[in-house]
Amino acid sequence: MSQAIANGGQVLLLGLDFGSTTSSALVAQASISSHCVTGRMALQDPRVLYRGEPVFTPFDHGSIDLDAVRGLITTWLDEAGVSADALFSGGVIITGLAAQRHNAQALAELVGERVGDALVTRADDGGLESWLAFMGSCSTLSRFHDDQPLLNLDIGGGTTNAALGLGGNVLACGCHFIGARHLQFEPGSYRLSGLSRFGERLLQALGIDRRIGDELDQRQRDAVLDWNILALLAIVEGDRAFFEGELGQLIEQIPLHLPALADAPAVTFSGGVGELLYRHLDGQSLPGTTHYGDLGIDLALAIAATPRLVRDARRLVPENRGRATVYGLTLHNTEISGITLFLPRPQALPLKDLPIVARLGTDASQAQLADAITLARSSQSGACLQLLDSGNAPGLQGIRQLGGRLAGAIAQVGPDADWPLVILLESNAGKALGNYASDWGRLPVNLLVIDEVRERHAHYVNLGKPRQQIVPVAFYGVH
Question: 34, 101, 147, 156: least surrounded by Cβ within 10 Å?
Fold first, then answer.
């Protein structure tokens, strides 16, 4: 490992968040060093270098305006004084109503082209967004009040992403189509200028006969806001009956299953609506009627008037409110490999969108490993197995035996020599395991072993380019 990395060399991290209403960018700097307690390599002491002012997400006749986005990214990088080549890791997440546009994946691809090997390029991943929002909003708050469960509601234009955490760790995630922008208005009025598909269904269910160009009166606005408050309360109280109704089923993208805890969770907020809520609770004035062209201000005030939702809001205030997702994406989503990884073909990286086909213990049998590799072969671009320590980390003898079983399984299945098979190992023994599993290079296999990677309940993994024997790792499809 280079002396710069060994002594905590600095790396640059980029996060881009394109949401229903606004988009933002964040650039941070962090050092890579071993954790003083665990010994794992990690990003330490992150420091934000640049916060781009949120801008309205550019749309053009119902599609994301890709040319405008290209200009935004150029502006953000220029203002930050950062070139794409200097980035250690980058991430983009496209959320809410923006993720439902037909060209959302084209936006993800555009970002990948513009900033290089961005690790997260997913257009619709509610579980990841919920996790990121919790980590970006109140991970420090949760660690400080380590015996107090926190339920963070990240409320934006199209979705509410809920995450329950305790002691800084996320225990459960959910995602619901509850947001301020399902009904859009001409700013300064309540004259409808746009409706999402769910917005149309909500008005129908509430018996509100209004279309684009019509104005909503006070009674109709109250009915819409009341329904949204009931939906938020159902999330907080774990009311499954609410989500068994027609509208409840329609809004539930990822159910939130709250585990039994000794104490009821306190509720925190983030996202655009969360930021407006805390501004109001702090006694700050809010913009005028439908300033943002949606119900964001009205919804924040309705939440403030609901004691069950805000009873802890002044006592437990999260670190980052309106930009929680981009903070979480930039500062928390990237994991760092160990320095003893097995990477005989560095040119094989980066690798994106690898399915994690199995999570097995390091005591898995050769038959179990062969079954997992057989399943993995269905992914033509490569796949990943996650090997977790079974109780204690295996010693050298355990790694030798595991490597022998892996070698036997690889020989039994016979994958193509160029097909990437990635092993994510929890222990600090990547090079040793890779040598044993490849029979010291005699097996024709494109094997990569990335070590010291913590378990993350996710469906996919992205691996960035190696930088001085360190590989950035990002997960998505969090469940």
Answer: 147
Residue 446, classified by CB atoms within 10 Å of its CB into exposed (0-12), middle (13-18) or buried (19+), is middle
Q: Which helix (H) or strand (E) holds 195?
A: strand 192-195
Question: Which residue from 187, 183, 213, 186 is spatially nearest to 198, judged by alpha carbons?
Answer: 183
Letter string b/e over residues 18-49, b meaning 16 or more CB atoms within 10 A of that residue's CB: bbbbbbbbbbbbbbbbbeeeeebbbbeebeee
DSSP state letters, 238-291:
T-TTGGGSHHHHHHEEE---PPP-SSPPEEEEEHHHHHHHHHHHTT----STTT
Strand order from edge to edge, sheet including 252-254: 252-254, 169-176, 160-166, 150-155, 266-270
Name the 3-class secondary structure at 365: coil
Q: Where are the domains of the chain?
A: 3-124, 127-321, 335-476
Q: Look up the pTM and report it.
A: 0.76
Contact between residue 424 and residue 453 where contact means Cβ atoms under 8 Å apart: yes
pLDDT digits (tens, 9 = 90+) for 283-334: 999 999 999 999 999 999 999 999 999 999 999 988 776 666 776 777 677 7
Tokens of 283: 């006694």
Q: Which of 316, 344, 373 is nearest to 145 (CA)?
A: 316
